[in-house]
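Appendix B. Chain record.
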Amino acid sequence: YQRRVHGTVSVPDSFGGAACIADDGATRSQECSTNECPVDCVGSYGAFDSCSTSCGTGSQTQTFIVSVPSAFDGASCIADNGATRSQECSTNECPVDCVGNYGTFGACSTSCGTGSQTQTFTVSVPDSFGGAACIADDGATRSQECSTNECPVDCIGSYGAFGSCSTSCGTGSQTQTFIVSVPSAFGGALCIADNGATRSQECSTNECPVDCVGSYGTFGACSTSCGTGSQTQTFTVSVPSAFGGALCIADNGATRSQECSTNECPVDCVGSYGTFGACSTSCGTGSQTQTFTVSVPSAFGGASCIADDGVTRSQECSTNECPVDCVGSYGSFDACSSTCGSGAQAQTFTVSVPSA
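Structure tokens predicted for this chain:
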């Protein structure tokens, strides 16, 4: 507070005159404020919570609670509101489970066929304080069958009897087949032939009819270098028919022809530009376009058109001068005419393009 002394009474009232509003020397007060007083932080750590583990060494935490935060340069608390700090805590020893495992299997007891191999259990951490026991005692062993290389198996097999002759006349052949009863395996001796392999010998009876053997050769060159022509092939008899054998389909030297087409004849492109379209604008300078139309496209090496189908080209076109609209705008407002209270500020209109 600040105290204010009232003005001194210089002329006291008398003879029924009006009294002063206060006695001479009376005082009155009003609130005043300069700077806020500093407020020191008030806070403390709460109790520790329960231990983080039921056995062995764990931790427990206490939390700092600020009841009055510092202000106006008052003293800070020793920690932030909600800050925590921890300490170790311990109860009973924890159970220790056994740690151990079987090692790799040793060498197989035989070099081929089926043998056995052994692995040994090793305990690296024994169980204690009621922990789980290992699945086996330290040094215990277990075995499994093993097979490194199979033992060699020699092939067993033989050729069967010859079959009937392949033909009822002339010289034929007859075949016998090799049958494998036990295939070789794992490096054993191979059979003299594969299973199902055959070998043949000649057999003969009467002379057989001989059918004619012949065929048309390849077609000759086409009679024209482009478009449609003709080409010829000739029949050649390599074996004439005999002993009542079948005749050939044609005599030796007979010919036959077919149409042929090697390369298509070149086709030159036919096309032209159309008339120009309407001008793109009704005033000022614009453009107008004409389009190239291909009526016959080039093909087979014929001459190309001077432009692709649908290609356009343009030229300038001009009609009347276009109206020009005025372009202008108000600028930014200038400074206010007064630094406080109500004033005025002005902006100026500037024409950048006059109408025409």
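Further analysis of this model is presented in Appendix C.
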